[in-house]
Amino acid sequence: MQRLAFPEAECIHRQPLTVRLGDINYGRHLGHDALVTLLHEARARAIAALGFSESDVAGSPSVVAELTVQYRAEAHWGDVLVAETAMPTPTGKGMPVYQRLVREADARTVAVACVTLLWLDPDTHRPIAVPPVLVQAVQRSRAPGSD
């Protein structure tokens, strides 16, 4: 299996998130289902920081087409994780969104993930090109002095 790399230079957002009691599984660490929920929260906040909503970018909603998660360390109740979100400039219909969860206390990477988002035509529900306003916002977010 190829190790998923987080594209540092394309990081556009950082969001602290705390592991809640309900996020813990029977192994006494962050469960996979809760991890995906934390990633979703961070991704939604990153897109909101660009001025959009996953449910409406230029009139089009997004859907998740693919998700890859690689686990690197455990996280436990009360851990503060920093969710970093990176967005390479999208082309075509798919938009890769990379995320990394880092435990704040020791800077250890807990997980790295990549989700591919598609935007849909609201009438036909068929994939469309990534809305140009979103592409421009992603590019602006990485401009010098924007962080």
Describe this structure in words.
- The protein is α+β, with helices and mostly antiparallel strands.
- The chain has a single domain, classed as Thiol Ester Dehydrase, Chain A, CATH 3.10.129.
- The protein is built from two helices and six strands; from the N terminus they run E-H-E-E-E-E-E-H.
- The chain has helices at 32-49, 132-141; strands spanning 11-18, 62-71, 80-86, 94-103, 108-120, 127-128.
- Strands 1, 2, 3, 4, 5 and 6 form a six-stranded antiparallel β-sheet that branches.
- The termini are far apart.
- The model has no long low-confidence stretch (mean pLDDT 94).
Q: DSSP strand (E) fraction?
A: 25-35%
Number of domain units: 1
User: Secondary-structure element order, as H and E?
Assistant: EHEEEEEH
The CATH homologous superfamily is called: Hotdog Thioesterase
Number of helical elements = 2
Q: Could you say which structural class the secondary elements and strand pairing correspond to?
A: alpha+beta
Which spans have pLDDT < 50 for at least 5 consecutive residues?
none
Helix content: 10-25%
Number of strands: 6
Roughly how many Å is the radius of gyration?
A: 16 Å
CATH topology: Thiol Ester Dehydrase, Chain A
Task: Output mean pLDDT.
Answer: 94
So what's the CATH class?
Alpha Beta
Question: Largest sheet, described in full?
Answer: 6 strands, antiparallel
Distance between the termini: 33 Å
What sort of overall outline do the alpha carbons produce when their principal axes are compared?
globular
What CATH architecture would you give? Roll
Pfam families: 4HBT_2 (PF13279)
Protein name: Thioesterase family protein
Family: Belongs to the 4-hydroxybenzoyl-CoA thioesterase family.
Keywords: Hydrolase
